[in-house]
Each structure stands twice: as C-alpha cells, then as structure tokens.
Specification:
The protein is an alpha/beta fold and about 475 residues long. It has a domain of about 170 residues: 3-Layer(aba) Sandwich (Rossmann fold), CATH 3.40.50. The chain contains nine helices and 24 strands. Helix 1 runs antiparallel to helix 2, helix 1 packs across helix 8 and helix 2 packs antiparallel against helix 3. The chain is globular and about 55 Å long. It starts with 11 loop residues before the first strand and ends in a 12-residue tail after the last strand.
Amino acid sequence: MNSSILSGSCPSTNNNITTFPILDQFSLNVQVTHNPLQLPLESLFSMAARINKKRSFLFVSKLLGKHIPVNPYTSLLSGAALAVLLYEHLTEKTEETKVQITEWKREMVEGLIDPQQARQVYNMLLQESLSLPETIRFVGFAETATALGHSMYEMFADQASYIHTTREYVPAMHPDIQFEEEHSHAMAHRCYALDHEAFAGEGPIVLVDDEITTGKTTLNIIRDIQARYPRKQYVIASLLDWRTEADELRFAELEAELGITITPLSLLKGRIEVVGTPQLEPTQQDEQLFHPAVTLQTSTVADDFEQLHATSEDGEGKRSTASYVQHTGRFGMQSRHNGELRQEISRIAERLRTQRTGERTLVMGTGEFMYIPMRIAAEMGEGVLYQSTTRSPIHTHPAPGYAVRSGAGYASPEDASVHNFIYNIAPGQYDEIFVLLERQMSEERMEPMLKVLGQLGCGHIHIVYCGLPEKTGDNEQ
C-alpha cells in the first residue's frame, strides 16, 4: 500500500448531504431521509475501503462490536433501540404509550452516544419486559447480525422466538429454510430449527440485519419463508437502510405478488453515492505491528452451558463432533429459554472476572458466536471492551481516523476453507484478551488462529472454550 495516502476521514456536510472522504482517493455522499432517533452519523459508523469490484467501501459500525471494539452495552442497546421501534409500530398508540416511547427514545439516544450511559439505559429497557399482542418470530442474519437480532428479540418478555441463519452445514439436519446472499463472500444461509417453531404460526416475522443495501437477500428469505410458512406481515429491521427507489419498488412488487406487507425499521435511512474510483493494492498483514504475546492460557466453561451435540461438515468435507452451545439462537430458542441463558452467562462472567489481571480487557467473540460473548463481556466489570472476529476482507491503513488501521487473517478453526480476520488491535492496547469460542476444535485446527493471537502484542491471551471437544475415538472424515 502507498504509505503516502492520507486517510481523509473527516466528513463534511452541505445541502443535507454528508461527504465521507476515503483514503483521499474517493468519497461517499450520504443523504439522510429518515433518522427516527436523530442520532449523529458519527455515532453510527466510520468508513473503510475494500478491494471489491461490486462495492469499494464499507460502513464500519460503531455499534455492532465486529470490526471496532465497543462498550458491550452500547452494542446491546442498539438491538434494544430496534426493539422499541418495533414496539412502537405494533402496539396501540394510546397517549400513555406515546409518552412512554418518547421517553425511552430520549434515553436511548443518550445511551448510544455516551458509553457511560449505555449500561443503565439497556438494563432499564430490559426490565420493562416489552409485550406484544401476538407471537413474534425474529430471524438474525449471519454472521454480523446474530447478536443484533438476539438483543432485539430479548427485549420481549414472552410470545417471542429467535433463530439466526448460519453458514454451518449439519448433514443430519434438514434446514427449515435455505437461501443465497447474492453479494457476499459467504453466500449460503441455512436455518436449523430444532422444534420447528421458528417460523410456525401466522404472526409477523422480523428479519434483522445490520445493513440493508439493495435488500435482495431479504427478498430471497421472504420468498422462501412464504412458500413454506405463509403469513401476512414481515418487518425488516436494520441499523442502516440504503435502498434506492428501484430497490423499494422491488419490495412493493413482492408485497403485491405475495399479498403481504413488508415494513422497514432502521436507525438510519438514506441514499448513498460513490464519487471517484479507488486505486487500491492488496493489503499485507501488518506484521510490523505484531509482537509475541507473553502468555497464552486455555480453559473451558462448557460445564456451565447446556450443550447441543451435532456433527458438522466443513467446506473441505471434514466432519467434527465438537458440541455447540444450545441457546445461541443458531438452532432456535423461545422466550422461556432466556432466564436459563442469563443464569449461564452470569456464572461464566463471574468466573472470568476473577481471572482478570489488568484494567484494559478485550473480550472477543468469534464468527457467528457473538451474543453470548458480548453479554459475558458486559458483566465482567469496568474497563471491558468487546469485538468479534469476522469473515469480511477490509483494506487496512494505519492512518489516524481511518476505520480499520490493522488486521490479520487466518484459516478458521471450524472450517479451514474460510478465512477469518481480526482487526484494530494494536500492541499494548490491552492488558489481556479473552477469546471465547463456541466449539472446541483440535490443536491442528486451532493452530492458525493461535499463531495470529500470539502476535497481537497483548500481554495475556485467554482462550475460553464454551463447548465440549470431539468425542473420544471420533475421527474427521
């Protein structure tokens, strides 16, 4: 990469259009058309470039806890904010509810802007135990929105279910739905519902994604659900909605074709325009930033989690019998499971809190396994940030103000054919990092990830397995 390129990251606003320069090579114009909480754009995202013919830029969320470390309560609160918008949409508009919702919105804005307020606002909303007049089914999109969908679903005390799509392949299980993500580096999505209640009934289905660009993925999943589990109402919930008029017309056409309604809810809706063409070279891993870690410690908390035993098959045809955690949402869950999961999370958070040795701690989720590590991070005390590994290939650049300043890639322990990345960890940034993995893989599968973790320049790395290892005597096929 040309080190003389400046970040040019400071946005400017003119005539209701905010321009985000990216690497001083090109820029993105954003015109906001709907901002229900009146959140400042800089509290929602920053920008990065990527080497991709279809889309040269990436909105790097400041809420999700994926590429940028966040206060875990900030991320949880973003899902809660979408839950309040859904509650406002589906409940009767009495004077009392209008006043209550207005007050919730005011407090949510404070929490989303100020991390110091996020915990108090999130816990307040959780205690409200929102209730809807009919059963609601929530579906989160893997991998980025698995925690967002879960935190939205959890706000409702009863009559709710949650499942997230997965890129996992479990040969012995038949997916309830399966669809393709057309503009993705990981296309196949499946939903494995153990009790098949994830889509049953006639109540609304809420599809949750972090960002809607064209909406084609959403239309794919709606068409697939409607063919098997017909109903009248869908809601698409997202942090950002960038659909054009032509995209919205496709939604209207599907509504007319299937006789349904599709209601969009988002924290920000607008139009985007790319100006200029980036001239990017493939980025190298930032090895000059990495130094050997002092210690790497491995432990397990599988005894505190209810386990689900299922054999997966990766992209190379190799199988694993390492167990999954039961209540991640991957295999579906109901409101009645929430209390049990909260108890599991609290027990584990207390155990890990006692292992902390410093004041600057990062808890890292892995891939689709985001929500449980995020909730554990939230209960591990002060000075804890959260982020997750990701499949997203992003152009890194070490300039101040650029969203993704460093990164390293490795073969995923669960599937060596999948490349994962860890972004934005600088040497000396943390006293320790707790890496929470859902499944306990073999040493051979873990080696690429452990090598990268050992080069991050952090004093202490804790590897925490939440699932049981492969059964003794089982061999990969």
